[in-house]
Design goal:
The chain is mainly alpha-helical. It is built from 4 helices and no strands. Helix 2 crosses helix 3. The protein is elongated. The N and C termini lie far apart (about 65 Å).
């Protein structure tokens, strides 16, 4: 996915994976507005900002948060992840994490540290 809002191609894949919300008697966002809500969720996850800081162009932060939680509890995000992985594999797109974390030389068993030095003077006993 891009760093901005969902593209048409991304939305076509994603929209059928989202549940249709029950009739809410005129309150809250309509299911047709799920794209804006998903864009708000992605913005929040990408930026790491508090839910209240989601830009108003995506809708009410509270609606976005509640929809995110409801979908999370229903297992929607697991289904989305599996489906997107299958789509990416079918299209030949793969994501490989090549993160490297360097450790201090003593963490790798190198010379030095406590093990190379006696803890007490052997002559002191």
């Amino acid at each position: 996915m891009s760093r901005s809002d969902l593209t048409e191609a991304e939305w076509r894949i994603l929209k059928d994976l989202l549940p249709i919300e029950p009739e809410n008697h005129g309150r809250g966002r309509r299911p047709e507005q799920n794209r804006s809500i998903v864009n708000g969720i992605l913005w929040r996850l990408r930026c790491g900002a508090p839910w209240r800081d989601v830009p108003p162009k995506y809708g009410s932060w509270n609606t976005i948060y509640r929809r995110f939680r409801r979908w999370n509890e229903a297992g929607v995000w697991e289904t989305v992840a599996v489906t997107l992985a299958e789509v990416m594999a079918d299209s030949g797109h793969y994501s490989i994490d090549s993160t490297t974390v360097r450790a201090h030389v003593s963490a790798a068993g190198g010379k030095g540290g406590l093990r190379a030095k006696p803890l007490a003077d052997p002559k002191a006993a």
